């Protein structure tokens, strides 16, 4: 239900209300996770960040698969919410080093994906989504964001090979159908895969 609602393109007024609710939820989850961390649950803030990212990320994945775009009205509030939830959690638990690591990872992954986008192999919506991915995975380690991107490309490989094979079988490119492959669903899947593996294993 949540994913279906998010997958519908929001208006600016809806996005404003959505952003306020999202920020409030992020603060609540961050503070809760911080309290749990103080009581010995070391990965609680990671779970809180995952709880914020998962439904919104899956909604964005659906939009990208359907419309081949990642709306700013969702990607940017999601990045802000991810920053808020880890900041709130760190404020309660005192995990400032992990907070700095997460925020810098978000910015760093955004820069890396922007460089990739400049080659034409990614869209700039993917770059904005990368901010959230970097914060989520960067909470755990400096290297996990790149692992998430690597996982995304591995997951996308069968799709890419299928498109390439279809294009080669068809002499006329127009007759081959669309050859653009949205990366949003694979970036979201890669981030959730490595995050859940880190939390559970």
Automatic annotation (TrEMBL):
> What Pfam families has UniProt attached to this entry?
Peptidase_A24
Spell out the GO cellular component terms annotated for this protein, sorted alphabetically and separated by semicolons: plasma membrane
Alphabetized, the UniProt keywords read: Membrane, Transmembrane, Transmembrane helix
Q: Any keyword Acyltransferase? A: no
**Segments traversing the membrane:** 15-38, 44-63, 70-90, 96-117, 129-156, 183-200
One GO molecular-function annotation for this sequence?
aspartic-type endopeptidase activity
Q: Where in this chain does the record put each Prepilin type IV endopeptidase peptidase domain?
A: 53-159
InterPro entries xref list: Prepilin_IV_endopep_pep (IPR000045), Prepilin_peptidase/N-MTase (IPR050882)
Put simply, this protein is called Prepilin peptidase
> Which organism encodes this protein?
Microbacterium paludicola
Lineage runs: Bacteria, Bacillati, Actinomycetota, Actinomycetes, Micrococcales
């Amino acid at each position: 239900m949540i994913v279906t609602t998010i997958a519908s393109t929001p208006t600016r007024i809806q996005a404003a209300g959505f952003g306020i609710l999202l920020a409030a939820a992020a603060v609540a989850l961050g503070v809760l996770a911080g309290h749990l961390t103080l009581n010995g649950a070391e990965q609680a803030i990671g779970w809180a960040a995952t709880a914020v990212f998962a439904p919104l990320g899956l909604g964005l994945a659906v939009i990208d698969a359907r419309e081949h775009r990642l709306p700013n009205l969702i990607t940017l509030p999601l990045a802000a919410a991810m920053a808020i939830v880890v900041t709130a959690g760190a404020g309660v638990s005192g995990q400032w080093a992990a907070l700095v690591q997460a925020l810098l990872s978000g910015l760093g992954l955004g820069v890396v994906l922007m460089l990739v986008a400049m080659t034409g192999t990614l869209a700039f919506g993917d770059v904005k989504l990368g901010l959230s991915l970097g914060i989520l995975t960067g909470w755990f380690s400096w290297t996990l964001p790149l692992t998430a991107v690597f996982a995304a490309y591995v997951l996308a490989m069968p799709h890419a090979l299928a498109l390439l094979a279809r294009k080669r079988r068809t002499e006329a490119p127009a007759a081959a159908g669309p050859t653009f492959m949205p990366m949003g669903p694979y970036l979201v899947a890669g981030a959730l895969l490595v995050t859940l593996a880190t939390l559970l294993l």
